[in-house]
Prior knowledge:
alpha/beta, six-stranded parallel sheet, about 15% strand
Amino acid sequence: MKYKYNILFIFPSIFNPLNGGVERVSDYLIKSFRLLGHNVYSLHYNQNCSDEYKDEFTFFLPNNRLYSTENVNFFIDLQRELGVDIIICQKSLFEDVYFFSDNCLKNIKKIAVFHSDLNCIEKEFLSNVSFSHINLKEIIINLKTYAGIRYRRYIHYLNIIRKFDKIIFLNNNSKNKFALRYPFTSEKLEVINNPVKINMAHNQKQNIVLFVGRFAKEKCVERLIRIWKAIYQDIPDWKLVLIGYGPEQNKCKQIAINENLQRIYFKDKLNPMYYYSISSIFCLTSTYEGWPMTLLEALSYETVPILFNSFSSAKEIINNNGILVKPFNEKAYAKELKNLIINNSYRESLKNNAINSIKDFNIDNIANKWCSVFDALMK
């Protein structure tokens, strides 16, 4: 790192590390950048935030209408007041990000970060559509809708290329796919993985299968509940703990009640680190992910992960430290999970590889990579 910069993070909600992966990553990075001597601030545009994580470095757009004149003036004045050198947009998959790029002062460098699968919207659409039990007219409508989504995504990414100085991906696979689709952009593209804090103190492991995350459609916690249903009677000494909240939580709870599933426990919004430390197995059943923080955190506590190979970073993270299952074969997942539970020596061998597999992702290494990007942009 050559210089100290004034950096402004931008994201809809406040960076409460208990709210999700992006919030936790941003919290880690902000604290690390400050330790390195940078002045770091955050700007948010979701008014429904608790006061717990607000401080003198945290700002909010004043108007609920993003493109209001009041917000434009506030944003421009804030940049001048703080002497901003660099803005980092932590939610770049959607068009909201144009407000900040278009109203950024001339000499400020702009960084867009993609925290999710580049094709997440297409995957979300396809996951809600079945082509096997509908008529030809509906198939044509769905195909047209899908083509429209693909086209709008293409235009959005072109806009990101045009409006931003640097584009950050969380894994090499995403960057390579993007570079193949937009071959004239290679100088703007960088890969910086999400960081994790390596935990060196561990509690005694218990017979717990753990899920941590938002109860959202893309996480598809229903899959995990169905998988638990298939095996729980064969593993009477084990329990399933699900930590998180979100729009699908009540639905998942109701499924568990309706199926009379035993030894399944829902924990709401709490710090999951204790449960990482005592759980033996971590489960992920997402339709797509970016670079999942919960997966890295599980590994940092030597909790063996099992997940569907449904997103591009899965193979970059899992290598002799967990299990990848073909998406979305729930029967195969249930078989692998049961084997992991009953085969102690196999589980122990994967557990022993956990810490070494994520050392490259420790917060110091990742913060230094970011600082190299800052220096290259500002020279």
